[in-house]
Amino acid sequence: MENVSKSFGGVCAVDNMSLGFEEGKVFCLVGPNGAGKTTLFNLITGFLHPDRGHIYYHDRNITALAPWRAARLGVGRLFQDIRVFKRLTALDNVLTAFKNQPGENALISLINPWRVAREERRMVERARDLLSLVGLEGNEESLAEDLSYGQQKLLSIARLLAADADVLLLDEPTAGVTPVRIKAVLDLIRKLADAGKTVAVIEHNMSVVYEIADWVYFIDGGQVTSFGIPNDVLGDPNIRATYMGL
């Protein structure tokens, strides 16, 4: 992001902000409520367009792309409110995310049903592998609504991976998750970064930030006011006083 600004009426939610995320690293975005963190994700994924500035994915300008186009490029988003298909099984939830499925083309289904059947079998195996990767093996046939809140977040991440997302923007992935399940979420985030994914996390739990963050952006008033490793940013006396009340 280069010099990006976004206002709503007279309120400047993102104010001339510049930042970037690196492959294979976990970046945590921290700061008070209303600082502009979720607006930042909305701008990157195309749900909002900036008033000024530019946003790039690798060397491509994606400033004005529609959300579905950004997703097709590989920019994945986990929303704060989980958006799974509650009446579908976990397996079917993942299957909906695969791109360019031949079975979606009526003509191919008619003239080459063997290809469609072969591809469907391949995608089912891939979906099962992804569910296993995120720790949901054995839950393939469970309805999404019957999974715990933490399991639904893991299912949402599996769908992002099925869509070939290289950049994972995770909005409070541990919020509302039990301590036992938080460990599974954090282990998965670390595993994905180690595999080369770019991960950006909005997080309010400081113990989580210390555990998974390679780099931390502290955002306040729509601006990046501090950037560095967790100890440097969260150990800053001014940040501790204003944000954590310490």
Polypeptide structure, described:
The protein is an alpha/beta fold and 246 residues long. It has a domain at 2-74 and 166-243: 3-Layer(aba) Sandwich (Rossmann fold). The chain has ten helices and eleven strands. The protein has helices at residues 37-44, 67-73, 90-95, 106-111, 113-133, 149-162, 179-194, 206-212, 230-234, 237-243; strands at residues 2-8, 11-17, 26-30, 52-54, 56-57, 60-61, 75-78, 167-171, 198-202, 215-220, 223-228.
Corresponding CATH architecture of the domain at 2-74 and 166-243: 3-Layer(aba) Sandwich
Average pLDDT metric: 89
Q: What is the number of helical segments per DSSP (H or I, 4+ residues)?
A: 10
Level-1 CATH class name of the domain at 2-74 and 166-243: Alpha Beta
Please count the beta strands (DSSP E, at least 2 residues each).
11
Uncertain runs are none
Q: SS-based structural class?
A: alpha/beta
The largest sheet, given as strand count, sense and whether it forms a barrel, is:
6 strands, mixed
Which shape, going by the Cα principal axes?
globular
Using the CA coordinates, give the radius of gyration. Answer: 19 Å
String of helices and strands: EEEHEEEHEHHHHEHEHEEHH
Helix content: 25-40%
Main sheet strand line-up: 7-8-9-3-10-11
Residue fraction in strands: 15-25%
